[in-house]
Specification:
By secondary structure, this protein is mainly alpha-helical. The chain contains 21 helices and 5 strands. The longest helix has 25 residues, at 295-319. The structure holds flavin-adenine dinucleotide. Flavin-adenine dinucleotide is lined by residues 260, 263-267, 270-271, 304-305, 308-309, 312, 375-376, 379-380, 384, 401, 405, 407-408, 412-413, 416-417, 420-421.
Length: 521
């Protein structure tokens, strides 16, 4: 019987997610591909490449050991690998998961024609890396002007019976406990030790390989993510046992040098396919039912995965391809080189420039450079906020977020950047821009201690740039947001300021902006 070729994408690195027969079959060949085109697309974080390549290599071995026929190859592109493998194996059918990202949709559009010419059938299966099919979001979004996550999330909780009591009402008496979850990190309390999975020989070999590759971002030495399903499950278990109970209250807290604090670090594992989202949700729910974690923390965590993760994937497909160029605030600026090289020492591409003086940005970028990640509030309220205040083009910021994180894929970074962080989508995802002055950073972090700028000052050479950039942003977009109910208070505060002070802040913002080193195009 002619075989079927089962293409498994690099983000389907375990049987929890990959679309494969439950048991090995002689007439099914599993195809795993390392695409040169994909590898060259962006200056990927070295740890992202280690994660993806090592997880794929471990998965190939695990499948072989379980008796599957595996073809694992390096090829110019996914489409060419699939066409060539189908020819070489004499396959009459190719099975693949529906594309998770736009670039693969484009590749599959070409591939479909090639396979048809060869008389090979092409079958797409639903993506098991999410709780609901893509179509579920489209049904929900149809006819809505605003696509607020909260309503989608509540529907999914009802449909999948997550954190509901016997009467079908939300556990704890509310759908949302965000108001309990806004505490800064307690002064003097040390950060919890970071979760670690020790690299084995296979991973160390990939690390050594990747360390040699030029034109990439980030440091490889501290790589400590799981690359197998067993290690990913152990990581989840450790998070639930040691951190989940306190996840909620400190969800928004930031601490210098700490990419995770009590966050799970699970995004890289979910997004590469080592864990399936529903198993993570059920494990957290179990902790609530067993009384080891309170509802505010468990609900806060479940909302991230069943809510935000499913929702942003839906928004991505709903708004693509236009989302790539969304720029509702008409932001004109390129990306500050500080996002690649906060110290200005030329460590990224050999070009030196003045170091970033804002400790919040410099430190959070160092976290990304050194570990390939930092938690949500650093991304949204430091890296996203500062870019938005400066007027960085969402597309330039998105390219960085896509390249620089171990959990980054366009389907998830792009809605977060173009929707949440920069308001580039003009309010589809967030009712107002997520912008804040230095006061927010002071309240929620220790970044301002030891910063060369003074967070209490709004003007003058020592003033925190976030302060004058914030008021410059409000003034710049005054007309656009004049009748916006949630921006009105800020506009009123601006209007009450002395015109000379506003002029001084706007002048300083212009001078600061002009001195920012911008990445080379
Ligand atoms: P936790 O706080 O422990 O949350 C648990 C899980 O919920 C995460 O692992 C993740 O899978 C999911 N989640 C939480 N928030 C979001 C969200 N806003 N969108 C989608 N899923 C979410 N997440 C990515 O996975 N990849 C990205 O490339 C990415 N880029 C981002 C860019 C910006 C500008 C912003 C503001 C957010 C981005 N996020 C991205 C979302 C979020 O910041 C990360 O998922 C989270 O910080 C990962 O850390 P964690 O696993 O410790 O998360």
């Amino acid at each position: 019987m002619p075989p079927t070729l089962a293409f498994v994408a690099p983000w389907e690195s375990s049987r929890a997610v990959a679309n494969l027969p439950r048991t090995p079959r002689d007439d099914v060949i599993v195809l795993l591909v390392e695409s040169i085109e994909k590898g060259a697309q962006l200056p990927w974080h070295r740890q992202k490449l280690v994660l993806v390549l090592s997880a794929m290599r471990h998965f190939a071995e695990a499948l072989r050991a379980a008796g599957y026929r595996v073809d694992h190859r390096v090829a110019p592109s996914y489409r060419e690998a699939i066409r060539d493998a189908a020819r070489e194996h004499g396959a009459t059918r190719v099975v693949a998961t529906e594309p998770r990202e736009w670039f693969l949709k484009d590749e599959f559009d070409v591939l479909r024609g090639w396979l048809a010419e060869d008389g090979v059938a092409f079958v797409e299966r639903p993506d098991r890396g999410f709780v609901v099919p893509r179509a579920r979001f489209e049904t929900w979004a149809a006819g809505r002007k605003e696509l607020r996550m909260e309503w989608f999330y509540r529907e999914l909780r009802r449909e999948h019976d997550v954190l509901l009591d016997a009467a079908g009402k939300p556990e704890g008496g509310a759908w949302n406990f965000d108001h309990d979850n806004r505490q800064p990190w307690p002064k003097g309390r040390p950060a919890p030790p970071r979760l670690r999975a020790e690299p084995d020989a296979v991973t160390r070999k990939v690390m050594a390989q990747v360390a040699e590759w030029r034109g990439l971002f980030g440091r490889v030495e501290s790589f400590a993510l799981p690359v197998t399903r067993a290690a990913a499950k152990a990581w989840l278990e450790q998070f639930v046992v040691e951190r989940l109970a306190e996840f909620g209250p400190y969800e928004d807290a930031m601490l210098a040098g700490e990419p995770d604090l009590l966050h799970s670090g699970l995004s890289s594992l979910l997004n590469v396919g080592l864990l399936a989202p529903m198993e993570v949700i059920r494990r957290a729910e179990q902790a609530y039912r067993e009384g080891t974690a309170p509802i505010a923390s468990v609900e806060g965590f479940v909302r991230q995965i069943l809510g935000w993760r499913e929702y942003v994937r839906g928004v991505y497909w709903h708004l693509m391809p236009g989302l790539r160029i969304a720029n509702a605030l008409e932001a004109p600026m390129g990306l500050p080189q500080w996002y690649w090289d906060p110290d200005g020492d030329g460590s990224y591409d050999g070009t030196a420039h003045p170091a970033c003086g804002m400790r919040c940005l410099a430190d959070s970028v160092r976290q990304v450079r050194d570990h390939g990640r930092t938690h949500h509030i650093n991304r949204l309220m430091i890296q996203g906020n500062i870019a938005t205040l400066l007027g960085v083009r969402p597309e330039a910021l998105s390219r960085w977020f896509w390249a620089a994180f171990t959990d980054a894929y366009e389907w998830v970074e792009l809605p977060n950047v173009a929707g949440m962080a920069t308001w580039g989508d003009g309010g589809v995802m967030a009712s107002k821009p997520y912008v804040a002055s230095g006061q927010y950073v002071k309240r929620m972090s220790d970044y301002c201690t030891g910063c060369r700028y003074d967070v209490k000052q709004r003007t003058g050479p020592d003033a925190c740039p976030l302060n004058y950039l914030y008021w410059d942003f409000i003034a710049r977009h005054r007309e656009r947001f004049a009748s916006h109910p949630r921006m009105a208070q800020m506009i009123r505060t601006l209007d009450r300021m002395k015109p000379e002070e506003v002029a001084a802040m706007r002048g300083e913002a212009a001078v600061f902006r002009a001195a920012v080193p911008i990445e080379k195009a």
